[in-house]
Amino acid sequence: MNKQRILIVDDEESVLFVLKNSLRKLGDQFQIVTATDGFRALEHLRQMPFDLVVTDYRMHGMDGLQLLVAIHDIQPKTRVILITAYGNEALQSEAKRLQAYRYLTKPLDIGVFRQIVQEALRGEVAVSRPGILILSDQRYRQALALLTDLRGEVGARCIILTDANGQTIAQVGDVADLHVAEIASLLSGGMATLQAAGQALDQDSNAINLSYREGKRDNLYAINIGQQLLLILVIENSAYSSRLGSVWYYARQTAVSLRQTLGEAEYATAPQIFDEDMNQAFSDELDKLFGDDDDTDLWEDAPTNTPSQPASAQPPGKLMNFADAIAAGLIPGSAIEQE
Q1: Which of 17, 89, 200, 335 is 20 to 30 A from 140 via CA?
Q2: Residue 319: is it exposed, middle or buried by C-beta count within 10 angstroms (0-12/13-18/19+)?
Q3: What is the pLDDT of residues 59-77, one digit of tens each?
Q4: Does domain 4-136+268-338 have CATH number 3.40.50.2300?
């Protein structure tokens, strides 16, 4: 059986070592290659196909976003996970625009990191919310088909399926001048209030609610799908626009169908991001990596400038603290200042 290939890119060899060896628990069906900068990564990509690239954002010479653009040119089907310690909304938005599969911030939960890698290699669609909505490609196509059918039935300018945080799951139509994340976030708050009021009225937590706004140019509709997802319709306000009752009828049918389609999807725990105590977070993650008997083989294949088992390291089966990790070369001594 052909092995799936994973390319890990980071200009810190100690980080490459930790990430590479943390993926060894996934099994021997994967071939893991590392590169210390974007240019060496591109050399690997020109020589062989990769199923997944995991890259740091801030690197010398070429940053992770520039590498992401180049990867799409060379191997358009390759999925990319971008990791950064410098997370902000602008960077996250740019990563999303460039179609990164996932955007993760340090410190990483290694267990969640492994899980996301597996999802990417299985070809699943992952969307961040208070948990990660995992859709197979088949379910994603089914959801997209339902949105397309609804758009035809009500004559919508666009229809968007989002999560409660405003992250787009699927969309059809023209959304060029819409601030989708902001609109979805505001609608989610109003819809949550409406749901709570309805539940206080009749204790029904599974009701489908409609929120409606008639504007000068466009009419805005929002329909909840359970408590986590939102269906947003934008319909041009004209004499020929579909009427409220008609839109509600077709949108409700679609909401029911989407609930059935997405109801079987799995939810994974979201990764821990930006712990206030960076020192402790790194220490905890190293404990997870080196504190288990199952992980004692992580000492193998260490970088050439790192002793295979340095004197300062604890014996296998004992926890390694942050200072020991620096002494072992697994985390650079300037890591706290850089972060």
Answers
A1: 89
A2: middle
A3: 988 999 999 999 999 999 8
A4: yes
